[in-house]
Amino acid sequence: MTALAAAAVWLQPVLLTVLALRVAAGDAEAPWLALGALIAPLVALLAATRRPTGANPVATVAAALALAIVLAADLVLAADAAVLLGGAAWHGIGLAAGLVLLMPLLPAPRWLGPAAPAVAAAALLLPLAAIALTLGAAPWTAWSHGSLRAAVTFPEGSGWVVDGERFSRPARLRFTEGQRVTVLTAGVYRVVERDATPPTVRAWRLAAGETLTLRPGDELSVEAGARLRFDVGRRVPGAPASGIVWADAPARGPAMLPGALGALVTLVGGALALVPASRRPGLLAAGGPLVLMTTVAAAVGWGVYVAAAAPDLALGGSPLAPLLRLPRRALGPPAADVVAALALGAVVVLLLTAALALRGRLAAIAGPPSLLWVGIVGLASAVAAWSPDPWRLLVLGLGLAAAVWTPALLATGRTAALAGSTVGAAAFLGLIVLPLVAPGAAAWLDTLVRYPALVAMPLGWAVARASGERAGARRAARTA
User: Fold this and answer.
1) Are 134 and 269 in the same domain?
2) Mean pLDDT of residues grouped by 10 in the chain (480 residues)?
3) What is the C-alpha separation between 41 and 16, in angstroms, rounded?
4) Which of 229, 247, 267 is the last residue of a domain?
5) Which strands make up the sheet holding 171-174, listed edge to edge?
6) Are residues 184 and 298 in the same domain?
7) Which of 266, 274, 278, 267 lies closest to 46, judged by CA?
8) Whole domain around residue 185: which residue ranges?
9) Which of 464, 433, 36 lies closest to 269, judged by CA?
10) Whole-prediction pTM value?
């Protein structure tokens, strides 16, 4: 397998779009996420060839579940696109799932061959180049402009203050200054007023066109699909206080190292399981790393330009909002529609190539995937409809693969692989259910609950290694 074809399984659109959104929002973990997104597949591509060491039902089941969860994270993006375009979430999930099921049945479409990731990378870069030329600012210049902003506020041309925008998933907005919010979707809106002890919770049933007056410190809960309009010139709820805070978040210090390490271990471990090693020499070997670097750089660039030109686009929480909304803000019609369509087309191509690559990985561990793949897509659709957080789903999918599948691939024998997978699965599931059985302990172990692979993968690998060494010692004793 070429490095370019191997990289397709890592270029999940959810990973790239969440990275862009995290950069735009000034998330403290964004630099570590960008680093992990780049080095994790490179480590996997350069690692020794990894093959299953015999029948391992634990690893097989975990691999199927991990692939379904990763695919579900991508399907959440399809739901976001449907909501942003005015439809229902299930419309996007159903359409994307149908495409994923249909593509393997077509007679080897050339446009989804090994070069498809490179085409998608170029399609992500071209809109970015058009935006850069229109704004007259290179990415580093846009970064400087964004970091000099005194406050992150709603500009006059923002869709949030003109016609209102939709929230693709539930959100809780925290206001640092007084603001009027106009409700454009009828429903019940819950406000937590924190100017008293204890905080007061009020629920308001509002019709379309009615307004809420929020005070500093108030928190507004918004349901998925709700459409709101804000006041121009007011601070964006939940956004960094200023450009300086965006560029150098206060949380970006020693205290965040456990979380950053958890993200890196999850990404690297997941890549070792999902990304097959490549041994093709020559220019083909450089194709995969080059496309990986290009797509990660493009995702970071999208985030930087959103933060500099339209920081309010991160408000809705949709990873697709920067790609769909920034062109209209920066270019204006009709060029914006073409550029946004090109970016959306790149995401669709990445989704289809990634899904086909996941199907290939399923075939490598579980045999012919025809009927099993239908079940995987059905499970992924159900999970996407149930859980609206694509990043959490991606972390769970990659973490499960890292904790259970990776120790089996790195083991030296069938018994060692089974032992490592079993221990890794037990540790992973234990940390997942910890908030349900012991909420107090989960609060103390927040990093491990968010990134269970941080403990589960090293533990599974250590057990697999120890079991392999003991088995080797017994064989040596018998032959002595």
Assistant:
1) yes
2) 75 93 89 92 77 74 92 92 82 90 68 73 87 87 87 88 86 90 92 83 90 91 88 90 86 82 92 78 65 90 90 86 86 83 89 88 76 90 87 94 87 84 92 82 79 92 84 68
3) 13
4) 229
5) 171-174, 219-222, 187-193, 200-206
6) no
7) 278
8) 159-229
9) 36
10) 0.90
